[in-house]
Amino acid sequence: MSVHTSILGGVRLTGQDAKKFRDQVTRGRPSAAAGKGLEEGTRLVKEYNANGFARISIKRK
């Protein structure tokens, strides 16, 4: 196992880390939050394409 980085920010995984990463990319499931973010982002893109702008509202906690 090793992780190699460069000055330019590239990362190279080897060994078991590379296998875990590859498995996660090919077989991993997105979280519920990622699905919700995708839906909201898609809605914003459609609104922007239709109107030339998209409105978002910030909810206070």
Distance between the termini: 43 Å
What low-confidence regions span 5 or more consecutive residues with pLDDT below 50? none
Number of domains: 2
How would you describe the shape?
elongated
Give the topology, please.
Layout lengths: L1 E4 L5 E4 H13 L4 H20 L10
Antiparallel strand pairs: 1-2
Plain-language structure description:
With 61 residues, the protein is of the alpha+beta class. Helix content is 54%, strand content 13%. The protein has two domains: 1-30, no CATH class; 32-61. It contains two helices and two strands. Strands 1-2 form a two-stranded antiparallel ribbon. A hairpin with a 5-residue loop joins strand 1 (2-5) and strand 2. The radius of gyration is 19 Å and the shape is elongated. The mean pLDDT is 85.
